[in-house]
Q: What sequence folds into this?
């Protein structure tokens, strides 16, 4: 259907029909209109797999209620659909009804278990664009098979700013360039399957505390440099939908912020897709949200009456309402193929209710076979490349085949975070199923002596740890986190702390065994009290359904770890840049400004436990032959940094080469270095690979809030390569010679800056005298108003030829 036909259709619709179109129909469906040929669209979380709690609530809530089942029983069936033993007899009856409904909809003989994919924190840790795209592809394929038109949170691009954030694990990185680069790949993967991707939460939804109603005070510069670029990157990748967040920013609700939703999103970035609210984020008048730039208010049934009233009162222009409807029609046209149609009365017709033939079932079964194979492969690759080896003292890992191996803690690792990211599935394994010969034991076994162990197990475990230098104890630390609540602190759980203290004390008394801490956690935890006594630390975060298999392969050496942190791991929570900014009410000051994550640590010269970009391997790498294709560059230029990466160890492996930019002498405050490029490279042992990373001169830019624009300063910039943000291995310099005029040495300098250049100061005084201007104006400004610019003191300074010439000479040096 052409745009003209869309416009004709909108002309045919009444204001009420338009208003109903932009309001949700059910919890996760939009409203269709059969009279105008508009299908209903199925939305669903999300970025880690199919959320059965949401799906069952949308598809089967009415059925369950009509048959006398409670909402709690429906919720239990969603959670334990693939674990029937956990259900009551009545819940099993409901399960059978739902199973029959699913089989009819999907045209299958059995309900396939959905895949569970790693969340953003682990996908980010892969530093691998292709791996993230493959996960997006698998998610899109699975959504298409289930008839889902739009997969929410693909990706969650919010920065990893505050580690207590309950949804910290959902984000990709604390660095906006890295988050955007990987988020783009998720978008491309999902939409390559004909399913609409959705980037959330726009913008700066970095905490769960008081998330509905909280007012976040964020500087314009921090917004532009840190919190908006990831969303812009996804828009550049063609993302179909955006979800606007709960909070207010600087006193304005995000859902009613015309600057954010129209000026930035539509006008500056050119986004032409659907902008929906987060669920119940519209806390004011619905018409005001649509006027600000919202196209879809969720969830449903959402009352539409205020939209009609807003048009009549002039609060909402007919033009803006029509534009929202146009985007909804384009959305339905492009991504509505797999959906059923929901009429105004709520009756469902269309693709999901058609009668399937035997050949249809065969084709759909084949599609599910493909989904399993592709999905499990993508989930495994992501987990195996994203799990991070943080410490490996004395090459404790990989574990030798003949080593006695004991697991203390849950063998059934936590594969997802709670809330929107939860995925209930049987497509998973326990760690004990993946490592032959591993013995699962209670941590209490190490506190028992021989007499206390009736079956000898406790004594054998403890004695092996004391006497056998090959004996390895895996301490599994599993901690939950999720939507709606933040973590109270970054402490390990009490049982893990107690076990670690005891094992370390045994080692201090001469025990020969090894301690390997497995962190099945949503983000960083405080390790300072134990790190010296632990031989190896592995961060698996929430690794998805194939996480146990990937972890087993890394522990036993079948896979060489290659994950690198995308957030800074603090020694203690008090060291984090946003520590003093955690709110205790409905107001939050982002007081760290642009100094989020590693930027804040480096600015304060504060050493973390593990720096941003950190990750160990079972092999070693060397960087050499670094070159830059330009030594001087102009605005608009692109630079290429070439290098050779050599595997000097005895195992094949992959390394993440990271490119950082530093501005040694800057008029505007900057972090000591900023990530501007990266490349993950696989190298066989003993071999070398020649590779490169490209960047643009505009990557050197900073945002000036006073000028309200991005600026690039003249002068020298340092390009550094390393394997993390702290340890730069090779550096080269380039010089920019035609930066932003206001930032050049010259009339836009402040008097304070001028004092750094005595010869330029003298040239200015001479030029002022020659022009007949008062030299005392400069002297008095030096004493009392040193932040004034030269052009403010001398309004004709652009005509001071001697001074202008002297400044130009300095820039060329």
A:
């Amino acid at each position: 259907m052409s745009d003209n036909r869309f416009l004709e259709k909108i002309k045919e619709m009444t204001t009420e029909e338009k208003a109903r179109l932009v309001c949700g129909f059910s919890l996760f469906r939009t409203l269709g209109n059969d009279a105008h040929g508009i299908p209903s669209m199925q939305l669903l979380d999300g970025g880690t797999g199919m959320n059965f709690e949401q799906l069952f609530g949308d598809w089967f809530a009415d059925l369950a209620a009509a048959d006398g089942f409670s909402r709690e029983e429906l919720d239990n069936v969603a959670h334990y659909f693939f674990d029937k033993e956990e259900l009551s007899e009545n819940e099993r009856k409901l399960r059978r009804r739902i199973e029959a409904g699913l089989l009819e909809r999907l045209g299958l003989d059995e309900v396939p278990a959905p895949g569970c994919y790693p969340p953003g924190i682990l996908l980010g840790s892969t530093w691998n664009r292709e791996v993230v795209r493959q996960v997006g592809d698998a998610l899109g394929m699975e959504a298409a098979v289930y008839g889902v038109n739009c997969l929410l949170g693909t990706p969650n691009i919010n920065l990893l700013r505050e580690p207590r954030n309950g949804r910290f694990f959902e984000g990709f990185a604390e660095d906006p360039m890295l988050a955007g680069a990987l988020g783009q790949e998720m978008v491309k993967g999902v939409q390559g399957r004909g399913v609409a991707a959705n980037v959330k939460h726009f913008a700066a939804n970095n905490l769960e505390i008081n998330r509905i109603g909280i007012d976040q005070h964020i500087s314009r510069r921090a917004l532009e440099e840190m919190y908006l670029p990831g969303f812009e990157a996804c828009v550049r990748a063609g993302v179909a939908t955006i979800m606007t967040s709960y909070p207010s920013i600087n006193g304005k609700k995000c859902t009613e912020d015309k600057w954010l939703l129209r000026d930035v999103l539509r006008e500056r970035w050119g986004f032409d897709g659907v902008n929906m609210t987060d669920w119940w984020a519209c806390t004011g008048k619905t018409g005001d949200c649509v006027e600000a730039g919202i196209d879809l208010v969720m969830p449903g049934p959402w009352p539409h009456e205020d939209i009609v009233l807003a048009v009549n009162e002039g609060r909402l222009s007919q033009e803006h309402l029509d534009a929202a409807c146009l985007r909804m029609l384009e959305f339905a046209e492009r991504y509505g193929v797999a959906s059923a149609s929901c009429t105004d009365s709520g009756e469902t017709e269309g693709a999901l209710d058609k009668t399937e033939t035997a050949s249809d079932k065969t084709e759909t079964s084949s599609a599910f076979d493909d989904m399993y194979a592709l999905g499990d492969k993508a989930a495994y690759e992501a987990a195996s490349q994203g799990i991070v080896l943080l410490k490996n003292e004395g090459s404790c890992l990989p574990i030798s085949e003949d080593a006695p191996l004991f697991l203390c803690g849950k063998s059934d690792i936590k594969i997802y975070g709670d809330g929107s990211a939860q995925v209930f599935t049987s497509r998973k394994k326990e760690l004990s199923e993946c490592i032959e010969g591993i013995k699962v034991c209670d941590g209490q076994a190490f506190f028992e002596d021989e007499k206390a162990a009736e079956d000898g197990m406790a004594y054998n475990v403890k004695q092996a740890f004391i006497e056998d230098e090959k004996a390895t104890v895996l301490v599994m630390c599993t901690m939950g986190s999720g939507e709606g609540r933040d973590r109270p602190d970054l402490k390990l759980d009490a049982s893990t702390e107690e076990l670690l203290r005891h094992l370390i004390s045994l080692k201090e008394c001469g025990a020969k065994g090894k301690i390997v801490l497995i962190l099945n956690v949503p983000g960083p935890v405080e390790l300072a009290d134990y790190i010296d006594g632990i031989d190896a630390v592995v961060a698996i975060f929430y690794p998805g359904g194939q996480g146990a298999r990937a972890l087993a392969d890394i522990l036993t050496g079948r896979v060489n770890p290659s994950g690198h942190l995308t957030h800074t791991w603090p020694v203690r929570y008090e060291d984090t840049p946003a520590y003093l900014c955690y709110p205790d009410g409905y107001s939050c000051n982002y007081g760290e400004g642009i100094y989020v994550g590693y930027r804040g640590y480096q600015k304060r010269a504060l050493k973390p436990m593990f720096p941003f970009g950190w990750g160990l391997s079972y092999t070693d790498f060397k960087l050499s032959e670094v070159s830059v294709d330009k030594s001087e560059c102009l605005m608009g230029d692109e630079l290429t940094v070439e290098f050779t990466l050599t595997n000097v160890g005895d195992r094949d492996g992959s390394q993440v080469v990271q490119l950082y930019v530093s501005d040694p002498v800057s008029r505007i405050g900057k972090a000591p270095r900023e990530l501007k490029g990266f490349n993950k490279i696989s190298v066989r042992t003993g071999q070398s690979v020649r590779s490169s990373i490209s960047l643009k001169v505009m990557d050197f830019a900073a945002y000036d809030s006073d000028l309200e624009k991005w600026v690039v300063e003249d002068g020298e910039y340092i390009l550094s390569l390393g394997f993390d943000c702290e340890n730069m291995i090779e550096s080269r310099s380039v010089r920019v010679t035609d930066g932003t005029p206001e930032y050049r040495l010259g009339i836009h300098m402040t008097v304070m800056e001028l004092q750094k250049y005595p010869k330029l100061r003298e040239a200015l005084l001479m030029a002022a005298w020659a022009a007949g201007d008062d030299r005392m104006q400069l002297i008095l400004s030096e004493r009392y108003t040193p932040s004034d610019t030269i052009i403010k003191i001398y309004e004709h300074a652009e005509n001071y030829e001697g001074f202008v010439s002297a400044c130009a000479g300095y820039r060329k040096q």
Summary: The chain has 25 helices and 29 strands. Confidence is low (pLDDT under 50) at residues 339-359.
